[in-house]
Amino acid sequence: MNPVVELLLSLLLLVSSFFTLVGSIGLVKLTDFFKRLHAPTKATTLGVGCVLIVSIFYHALIGNSFHPREVLISVFLLITAPISAHMMAKAALSLRLKKRPQCPTDETPDPSEDDSVEVGGSDPI
Questions:
Q1: Is residue 89 part of a domain?
Q2: What mean pLDDT comes out for the span 21-43?
Q3: Which domain covers residue 88, as residue numbers?
């Protein structure tokens, strides 16, 4: 393979690694549920998309026969990521989450940190 093409594919893999790392850090560090939902769905989708582009070009350049696996993965990712994010956001809106839920490993629940603010009232949806 041409060294320039190898360099471009390597750079695209580095970009992919960066986006995946940013999405993962955003998932861990952000406190608000909707911010935590936004970080991995956007950044990680870009990261996986770059890996799939590299895979398509790599297999095309080394002369392997065409397999639709990268295209199928891309379609599956682009269809399922927004739908799952939308479903989680709708669930969070119906639960009225304001901050990160308590970790299940915590021994004692703190009653002052109740996530659902209102029990009754008008529905915001």
A1: yes
A2: 83
A3: 3-99
